């Protein structure tokens, strides 16, 4: 059997990471970095090795080291000189580099360096940002008090992927706090593929506008339109809405159903 090539070892390294064997991946990655750190190997191989090594460190929880290797991976991919953290030269050039920037941002979040994390995502052109990056940017803006920017980022996340549901509640709360609602603004139009999305957004909008009766009815609409009867997420929120509306009997029923669905869920 022939000796494993560099590309094969890179595939093995990725497999170790996918399998959660991060310590093993770090060891193999350090060996590969030594092999690839010569002019005989193309910049792509060196960049891939650095990126995967950073992923191994990220998996081990060594986020400060991981960030430094993500930055080195960008340098190698570009065949450039020293790291440039600001300016047009720092902007991501393709999807692979955008991924590295997002990982760099995630390291910044864990390290509680939110300004740096925002800068990492902002260095990615909007068209290259996946929904995950747009949602994270919105959360970072919100934590930094940049509410208008957060609204734009959350809306952008939903434009990229209408199932980025985690941003719907903070988006509607932000719009309520900014008095940024327009008539029937919960969703611009009915989504034919996901007909329940309009009711889902309306439910969160109604709660943000302190209209619990409309919210409870909207959660019922979500169940009906999506055939999601007895879903835990909706039950918990419908129970809260019924309680806020003063309908204690219906609230108790919804809470009881939620507890029956998942006794360990703290929201019920």
Short recap of the structure:
By secondary structure, the protein is mainly alpha-helical.
Write the layout of secondary structure elements.
Layout: H1 6-18, H2 22-36, H3 43-60, H4 63-78, H5 95-110, H6 114-122, H7 131-143, H8 147-160, H9 168-177, H10 197-208, H11 212-226, H12 232-244, H13 248-261
Shape: elongated
Structural class: mainly alpha
Radius of gyration: 23 Å
How much of the sequence is in beta strands? under 5%
Q: How are helices and strands ordered from N to C?
A: HHHHHHHHHHHHH
Low-confidence spans: none
Total beta strands: 0
| Main sheet summary | none
The total count of helices amounts to 13
N/C terminus separation: 58 Å
Q: Please state the average pLDDT score.
A: 90
Task: Write up this protein.
The chain is elongated, with a radius of gyration of 23 Å. It has helices spanning 6-18, 22-36, 43-60, 63-78, 95-110, 114-122, 131-143, 147-160, 168-177, 197-208, 212-226, 232-244, 248-261. It has 268 residues and is an all-alpha fold.
């Amino acid at each position: 059997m022939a000796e494993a090539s560099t590309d094969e070892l890179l595939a093995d390294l990725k497999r170790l990471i996918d399998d959660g064997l991060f310590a093993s991946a770090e060891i193999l990655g350090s060996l590969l970095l030594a092999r690839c750190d010569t002019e005989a190997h193309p910049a792509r191989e060196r960049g891939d090795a650095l990126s995967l090594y950073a992923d191994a460190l990220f998996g081990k929880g060594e986020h400060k080291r991981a960030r430094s290797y993500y930055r080195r991976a960008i340098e190698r991919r570009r065949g450039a000189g020293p790291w440039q953290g600001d300016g047009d030269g720092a902007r991501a050039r393709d999807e692979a580099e955008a991924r590295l920037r997002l990982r760099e941002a995630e390291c910044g979040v864990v390290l509680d360096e939110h300004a740096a994390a925002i800068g990492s995502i902002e260095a990615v052109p909007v068209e290259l940002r996946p929904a995950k990056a747009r949602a994270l940017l919105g959360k970072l803006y919100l934590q930094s008090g940049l509410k208008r920017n957060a609204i734009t980022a959350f809306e952008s996340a939903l434009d990229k992927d209408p199932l980025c549901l985690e941003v719907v509640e903070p988006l509607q709360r932000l719009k309520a706090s900014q008095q940024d609602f327009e008539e029937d603004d919960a969703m611009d139009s009915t989504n034919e593929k996901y007909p329940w999305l309009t009711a889902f957004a309306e439910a969160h909008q109604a709660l943000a506008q302190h209209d619990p009766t409309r919210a409870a009815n909207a959660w019922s609409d979500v169940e009906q339109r999506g055939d999601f009867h007895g879903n835990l997420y909706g039950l918990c929120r419908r129970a809260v809405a019924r309680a806020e509306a003063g309908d204690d009997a219906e609230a108790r029923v919804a809470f009881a159903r939620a507890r029956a669905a998942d006794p360990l869920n703290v929201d019920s």
